[in-house]
Each structure stands twice: as structure tokens, then as C-alpha cells.
């Protein structure tokens, strides 16, 4: 069976969502408790009710996963009418949902323009594995950085995603996987056999999350809120290309796990591959990593290292990598390079990757090599339709491959 046959559109017909993209009422999703309270008071809720109402609405939004005010059973009719009149809790529009034969799911989601001139689209990817399910989430549409091997880096930044849009990726995925109480998981879905369908979240989609600090922070705090989506902070990972001044701060303010897109351990080479290195060179980056709060052998930083043929894949590079990470509780993720149309790099040969992995294993680092699922889906992407107003097909191919290959850690 070819991959193309294995991939089936999950939906027989497009989901008939009312056009969420044209919604003008502000959403209550993605607000902090304080912001939520303030929004309700502004529309006439008496101050004395705020605490209780915020708690109720929060529960319905994040524990029960409702997307219609009328389902908020313990909220009075009057208040539900007020909510209807002024706010929305609608999910984003699903442009497309696809399921691979290995259970990987991709959603192409459309959000309102919010200053971008036209609606924006991003992808969210779900990767089920034995005992866990990881959701790979985007933080920006496009990216301001220009990493030389990354296709997103060739696109200009369209805009930051709001906290609502980041949290909505998680809500929507939980909807579609039946991962809220009293919801059915779709027949045949590949999900962890027990417990939650989404156990891990990685900010490893499109964009540099630390350049959208406030929204990403709020979204991750909602995702880990014990009275809400309650993902363990140990199971939320933020990946950064190395925005040094924000690294310790995001750790202090959220407590999530950190991943660094390292890719090279000589400044000269990293300047080229990850140009933010010119601003924040390796020495500063490593100092920020060492200062990341809460590090221990049980709480390590993940260093992502893309394997580029003849560029950063020699055993000397492996030796220097081990030296660079000395003293930092670290895991190393070797990522086979996913080529994209027009990319100037090639993926290292398999033997080279294995030799590199053996070297760093011998130095005491577990070094999983992330690969097969990305290839499967990349091939399958040929099925996706491409229309001019949608993300260009080539953009999506490269983007999907990146998200799936690098879906993070426990
Ligand atoms: N912008 C953030 C989050 C993206 S995470 C960051 O750079 O950390 C996605 C990971 O995939 C990053 O480590 C990124 O460097 C890597 N990546 C980008 N393009 C890739 C490609 N074509 N092949 C393999 N990995 C890639
Ligand atoms: Fe942006 Fe990350 Fe791609 Fe670099 S690797 S261009 S920071 S998305």
C-alpha cells in the first residue's frame, strides 16, 4: 500500500462551521482569569459574582471543553444571553483534517486576519506514540528569523498568534480526538490506550515562541493550569532558536521544559545556520541554558541538532557538541534534515547519523533520532489541495515535515 492510499481524509465532507474567521465578537478563550473577570464586568456582570463566574466559565471551557455557551448548564440563562451577545467561544475553522495510517493527524486551521489583511492559516499536528500523544503547536504565522535550513525562515512574519489562537489549537485537537470528558474518540483513531489522548504539548511549530512571549506564556499557563487543561509542565516544551534575554524569564514565569535549536557548536557555523547567533553567540546561549531554573538530571534541556550532510555532521562536530554541553543537564535530539524545494542542504547519510549518535551515546547522552513519521506524512502531503489563498503547498510540505520530525520529549 502506498502512503497516498494509506492517508485518508478524516472528514467525508468539510465540517460546516459557521465562518469563525468572520467572527467579530471577542473570544473568552485564552484570557487569564483576571482578564476574563474584567471582560465580564465591562459587560455588566456585578463585581461580587466575578470570582464564581470566572471559575464556572473556566471549568466549562477547559475541563469540559464546551464550545457553546448554552452547554454551560450551571450558568443562568441571563448570563448566557449576556455572554452570547458580547463574546464567542467558537473553535477556529478547520480547513482540512488528515490522518495518516500511523495515526498522525494534521489540521489546517484558519484564523481571522487580526491585522494581517486576510485570514491566516497554520497547521497543528498530533503524533500518537506508545503511552503518549504529542501536540505540536505554532506560535507565529511565519517567522522573522532566517535560519538557513528552515523553510519557515524564507517566509516573512505575517503576525503573532494570540493566546486564544495558541490555546485553541489544543482545544480543537482535544475536540477532534474525543479528549474531553463524556466525548467519544473517533472510531479507529490511534491514541494512547489509557488516560489522556494529548499528554504532551510542544511549541515547535511555526514561529519563534520567545518573540511572542506574552501570548505564548499565557497560553502555556492555561495549558498547564490544574483547574483547566492540566497538562503537566514537564510535558510542555518550548523550543527556541536562542533568544537569550528571554530564556531564563520564560522558565521562571512558566516552569515549562526548554528545547534549544542548537544545530552547530562553532559560532562561525551557527552564525550562518541560525543567524540569531550573531546577536547572541554560543557563549551567551550556553550561559542562559545553565541558568535555566529547575534543571536536574530529571529535568534536562533538549538540544535539537539537525543533521546536514558535510556541514555539521562529522565526529569532530560530535566531540565539540559534547564539550559544549558539558555541565548542562542535556538531552540531544538528532533530526535528519527534511529537504524542501529550493533548500541548499542535504540530509546526512544514515551511517553518518548513526556514527554521530553512537559517539554522543558513548559520552552519556541518550540521543533519539527523529525520523520515520515525518517522511510518511511528507510523502502524503501530495494529496493536499493548494489554492492561492491557502498556505502554498511547498510551504506546507516543509513546515509539516519540520513539525513532525521534531515533536519533542517526554
Ligand atoms: N522557531 C523555533 C521553534 C521551531 S521548532 C525554533 O527554531 O526552535 C522546530 C525545529 O525544527 C527547530 O529545531 C528547527 O531548527 C528545526 N527545523 C527547521 N527546519 C528544519 C528542516 N528542514 N529539517 C529539520 N529540522 C528543521
Ligand atoms: Fe524561525 Fe525556528 Fe525556522 Fe529559525 S528554525 S526560521 S527560528 S521557525
Structural overview:
- Helix 2 crosses helix 3 (50-64), helix 7 (244-254) runs parallel beside helix 9 (282-290) and helix 12 packs antiparallel against helix 13.
- Strand 3 (105-111) and strand 4 (120-129) form a beta hairpin.
- This protein is of the alpha/beta class.
- The strands form two sheets. It has a ten-stranded mixed beta sheet, with helices on both faces. The protein has a two-stranded antiparallel sheet with strand order 6-7.
- The chain starts with a helix and ends in a 5-residue tail after the last helix.
- The protein has helices spanning 3-6, 33-42, 50-64, 77-86, 163-177, 213-224, 244-254, 267-273, 282-290, 315-324, 350-362, 372-380, 393-405, and strands at residues 8-9, 93-99, 105-111, 120-129, 132-136, 140-141, 159-160, 200-203, 236-240, 257-261, 301-307, 330-336.
- It is built from 13 helices and twelve strands.
- S-adenosyl-L-homocysteine (SAH) is lined by residues 147, 149-150, 204, 207-208, 239-241, 261, 304, 306, 335, 337-338, 340, 398, 402, 405-406.
- Iron/sulfur cluster binds at residues 143, 145-147, 150, 152-153, 207-208, 241, 261.
Amino acid at each position: 500500500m502506498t502512503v497516498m492510499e494509506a492517508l485518508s481524509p478524516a472528514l467525508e465532507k468539510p465540517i460546516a462551521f459557521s465562518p469563525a474567521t468572520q467572527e467579530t465578537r471577542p473570544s473568552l478563550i485564552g484570557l487569564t482569569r483576571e482578564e476574563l473577570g474584567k471582560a465580564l464586568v465591562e459587560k455588566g456582570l456585578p463585581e461580587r459574582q466575578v470570582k464564581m463566574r470566572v471559575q464556572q466559565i473556566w471549568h466549562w471551557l477547559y475541563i469540559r471543553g464546551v464550545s457553546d455557551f448554552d452547554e454551560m448548564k450551571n450558568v443562568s440563562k441571563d448570563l448566557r444571553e449576556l455572554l452570547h451577545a458580547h463574546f464567542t467561544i467558537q473553535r477556529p475553522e478547520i480547513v482540512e483534517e488528515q490522518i495518516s495510517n500511523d495515526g498522525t493527524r494534521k489540521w489546517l486551521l484558519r484564523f481571522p486576519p487580526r491585522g494581517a489583511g486576510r485570514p491566516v492559516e497554520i497547521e497543528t499536528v498530533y503524533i500518537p506514540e506508545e503511552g503518549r500523544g504529542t501536540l505540536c503547536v505554532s506560535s507565529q504565522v511565519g517567522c522573522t528569523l532566517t535560519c538557513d535550513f528552515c523553510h519557515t525562515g524564507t517566509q516573512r512574519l505575517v503576525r503573532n498568534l494570540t493566546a486564544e489562537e495558541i490555546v485553541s489549537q489544543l482545544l480543537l485537537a482535544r475536540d477532534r480526538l474525543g479528549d474531553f470528558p463524556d466525548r467519544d474518540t473517533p472510531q479507529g483513531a490511534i491514541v494512547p490506550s489509557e488516560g489522556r489522548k494529548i499528554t504532551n504539548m510542544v511549541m515547535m511549530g511555526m514561529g519563534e515562541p520567545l518573540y511572542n512571549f506574552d501570548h505564548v506564556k499565557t497560553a502555556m499557563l492555561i495549558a498547564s493550569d490544574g483547574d483547566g487543561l492540566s497538562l503537566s509542565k514537564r510535558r510542555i516544551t518550548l523550543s527556541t532558536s536562542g533568544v537569550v534575554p528571554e530564556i531564563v524569564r520564560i522558565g521562571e514565569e512558566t516552569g515549562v521544559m526548554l528545547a534549544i535549536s542548537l544545530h552547530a557548536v562553532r559560532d562561525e557555523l551557527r552564525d550562518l545556520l541560525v543567524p540569531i547567533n550573531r546577536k547572541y553567540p554560543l557563549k551567551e546561549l550556553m550561559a542562559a541554558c545553565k541558568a535555566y531554573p529547575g534543571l536536574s538530571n530529571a529535568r534536562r534541556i533538549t538540544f535539537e541538532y539537525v543533521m546536514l550532510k558535510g556541514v555539521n555532521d562529522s565526529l569532530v562536530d560530535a566531540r565539540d557538541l559534547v564539550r559544549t554541553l558539558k555541565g548542562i543537564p542535556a538531552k540531544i535530539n538528532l533530526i535528519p534534515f527534511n529537504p524542501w524545494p529550493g533548500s541548499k542542504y542535504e540530509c546526512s547519510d544514515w551511517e553518518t547519523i548513526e556514527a554521530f549518535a553512537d559517539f554522543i551515546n558513548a559520552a552519556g547522552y541518550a540521543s533519539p533520532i527523529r525520523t520515520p513519521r515525518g517522511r510518511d506524512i511528507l510523502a502524503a502531503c501530495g494529496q493536499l489541495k493548494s489554492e492561492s489563498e491557502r498556505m502554498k503547498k511547498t510551504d506546507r510540505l516543509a513546515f509539516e515535515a519540520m513539525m513532525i520530525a521534531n515533536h519533542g520529549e517526554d
